[in-house]
Amino acid sequence: MNLVINDASVAVLASLFLGLVLAAAAIPKLRHPDEFQGVVTNYRLLPSFLVTPFARLLPLVELVCAVALQITPAREMAAWTATGLFIMFAVAIAINV
User: Fold this and answer.
1) DSSP readout, the chain?
2) How far is Cα 97 from Cα 91, in angstroms, rounded to an integer?
3) Is the pLDDT of residue 3 over 80?
4) Cα Dmax for the chain
5) 20 to 26, 34, 68, 81: CA distances (angstroms)
6) How far is CA 13 from the centre of its chain?
7) CB–CB of 22/66 below 8 Å?
């Protein structure tokens, strides 16, 4: 049995996976915004006046990116945005470890 995988199917599967990861990250942040704001505060990476706007905006960016990954014309921009988000998360974790 030959399994044929073309570039389009790989892109769709990768987009679905990344979309699920981003949505799974965004939903708890949206459900418990005060708790997430506390997490952002505890990282101590942002000045205090930026903590609240960042904590409110990040889950929305994650959710929009998750949806945009499923829309073919927006997929490339959403993929670059997701890349930036994942790099930002990795740097934040590395600084705090």
Assistant:
1) ------HHHHHHHHHHHHHHHHHHHHHHHHH-HHHHHHHHHHHT-S-HHHHHHHHHHHHHHHHHHHHHTTSGGGHHHHHHHHHHHHHHHHHHHHHH-
2) 10
3) no
4) 59
5) 10, 23, 12, 15
6) 17
7) yes
pLDDT category of residue 2 using cuts at 50, 70 and 90 = low
pLDDT in tens, 33-81: 999 999 999 999 999 999 999 999 999 999 999 999 999 999 999 999 9
Length of the chain, in residues: 97
The residues, ordered by sequence, that sit 6+ positions from 23 with a Cβ below 8 Å of its Cβ are 62, 63, 66
Which residue has tokens 């044929």?
A: 4
